Fold this protein.
Amino acid sequence: MNRIPSEIVDQVRTATDIVHVVSGYLALRQRGRNYFGLCPFHKEKTPSFSVNPDLQIFHCFGCGAGGNVFTFLMKMEGVTFPEAVKQLARDAGVSLPEEADDFREYREKEALFYVLNMAADYFKQSIREDKGATARDYLEKRGITPEDFETFSIGYAPQGWDNLIKRAAQRSLKTELLEKAGLVVRNKEGRYYDRFRGRITFAIKSLSGQVLGFGARRLSEDNSPKYINSPESEIYQKRYILYGLYMARSEIRQQDEVVIVEGYTDFTSLWKSGVRNVVATSGTALTEDHAVLLRRYTTNAVMLYDSDQAGASAALRGGDILLENGLDVKVCSIPQDMDPDDFVRQSTPDAVKRTISEAVPLLEFKIATLEHKGKHGSATERANATRQILTSVSRVHDPIRRAFLVRDLSERLNIEEVSLWSEIKKLDQQRRVRVRQTDETPETDDYFFRKRGLAELGLLEAVLKDPELIPKIMRNINLEHIRHTEIRAILAGLMQEDIDPLTFQPEQVLARVETPVIAKRLTQVMMQEDSHPRVWEFTRDCIVELQQAIVEEELEDLETKLRSTSGEDMADMKNKLGYLVNERQKIMNGDYITD
């Protein structure tokens, strides 16, 4: 099911009691009309987490978290909005009707889940039989015992070309289904054979514990890859999946920190040593989607990669991605020529935890590298290393923190601050141009710290305060100028409705919200008791801010092009530049506002 209709979402919301749902995760005590408890999203000693049964919302007066029952479940379980709706629908006994095409797609995915579970069971059975002796011996040498097989869903794919195919045939499962699940491969002659053969298997699971695919390590020393993973399928996209997150998410949230490793055995060794807030990238590069996923649980990350040059490079690349998506990143150093698995198995649990606690901030790690090159490298190498550091600094969106970082860099590297700021400005402009050149909406929380994001969110807030403003807003903006897809969709839906201000229920708008930062802001509005008599002035300011942001983005693009343009084209561009500057002034004067 691609998108759940709003009327069904409303039906699930009204059939669900948020007090009952939240009580399943923390103790609540009634105080007046509301219920209070210790916030599950930040550490506190005095309860500041409030649940309002009348509005069916929650709000923390300490950290500001807020939303409805869907938002709460998303934050607690790390699930998507549709997954939260489906889970609550099951609990409330609400059936979710499927359209014919969607229903067929749903059944096909269920079939894929079935064959993957069948394969996982077969691999787990095989490792305990005589044919799995070699696999057991190998794992025992790496400290993994038979008791660990179930914990980590470890199995063994026996040697042979059609073991899994035969097992599926016994259950009347078509080989084409195995192919869709990535379990078999078809050769040029059209014959199928098992993808995994003579390998130890690690089941890769979703957040709900469903098997999505496998990682498999070879046992024979041949020319085949040491590890192979399931190919991407309808249900397995590696850019969204982190191995072990299914097991580790509660510990990550509790410790407010995640340790990131690359390999499956890195994960198992750390877990067995007592480090339970760990995930693995399954040998793939860390992606922005991984970063967004981790942000649901923590804003602190430690990169624990191999100690060789390739491992350091991967940690730096992944660290920059995490940094840009709002996480504080540290890099953990281990002895040379060791991977995390080796290091953990040769150390005591206390030594492992101490080493992780001594991880240094990503920028410190980069600076140390630069200082080394400053003694041994050329001027070009030092300049390139400096730019690499500034790439990370430019990804820090907190202006105060960024300013301190630049000042520290200037002092340590003996480079004037103005030179560093000039390079950062270039990097910022390049990133803004890249964002606008894509059709994707910047859906990170950072978007709402920018002028355009704040204006768009402010317009939605104004509608919640006074729905009669919708026609006025639409007279002053083009809906297509709303970049955030969710805000645009909500406003478009409200435009089509015949809203009666006397019966308008803001919680129905909140029920359509999937983005936590939007839910948080709207919840704060709903908790306010004043009637906001000056709401049009606030709305007017938001419209002006949005109009300004649109023109300023055009100006930035034009100024970037002017730096690389000459001849006749430059005259036209300068004329357009003057026009845009004039338009910006008119917007600031309120010339384009219709009351």
In short: The chain has 26 helices and 16 strands. The longest strand covers residues 211-218. The longest helix spans residues 100-127.
